[in-house]
Amino acid sequence: MAKKKRKKKKSINWSVRFLWIFFWITILLLFAYYFRLEIKSALSTFSTKIERLGEANRKPDIRYKNLELPLPLEDRAEQIIKHEGYTVSYNKNWRLPNWVAYELTRDELRGTVSRTDKFVVDPYVNGVSATNADYRRSGFDRGHMAPAADMTWSETAMKESFYFSNMCPQNPGLNRGAWKDLEESIRKWVKKDSAIAIVCGPLVDKRDTTIGRNEVKIPHAFFKVIVSPYVTTPRGIGFVFKNEKEDAPLSAYVVSIDSVEALTGMDFFSELPDELENRLESQNNIFDWEL
Fold first, then answer.
1. C-alpha dihedral, 82 to 173 to 225 to 84, nearest 10°
2. Catalytic site residues?
3. Which of 40, 120, 271, 276 is 20 to 30 A from 226, comparing alpha carbons?
């Protein structure tokens, strides 16, 4: 009888073990099923986010025509001259541009045309123009507004970049310092962003003196405003430089485009939708431009 009892107890122990094993296998299967559902849901959510991100990162198909051109000026002399590589608003009273505007593209930076260094009077200017004689022994550089290095894509554009309508008397320390640094930075941004619209020019007032027989105004400062409108998140930035030796980091000269409009009385980038224009022109975020 004792042996039979021991066998029964052993049989009961195995039944209990089997039930526990079955229980834990069931629990594990339920957890596995639950986590499978969670992973599937998470992957679905992640996939949706990736699709939305792809849509957000897609560059807009829209292209702005003449985005770089400011609105017409009513408070000063202005002659609009369209050249191959840039457009100039010429001020016959100052013998200077009010502004010079152009769009620079990544493809244009692949040009191989050599610099000419032949400074000449713009044949399309009505009225008096600066000449080489005005700059001679003045202590000022013939400072490009639209730089020759941005015009290597066309022999005509390169030639026209040396017109005096594209020049201003510029302190050598500025022309060869911070102004040049900004020009080089713009080319880097264009390579990254594909296209950038640029407007630049002098800041002039009645107190500013002149050089040469033709009384070419010496600007007390210069501005440059830039927008990159064709990237995922369009951005804008402005710069103001005193007409003196400037070699601080470019971040020291950053301002908003709105503030440049207040200084110049000009209206930039009006082709942009109002909401986008207002947003870009209020920005002065140096980190967006890696400055």
1. 20
2. 144
3. 120
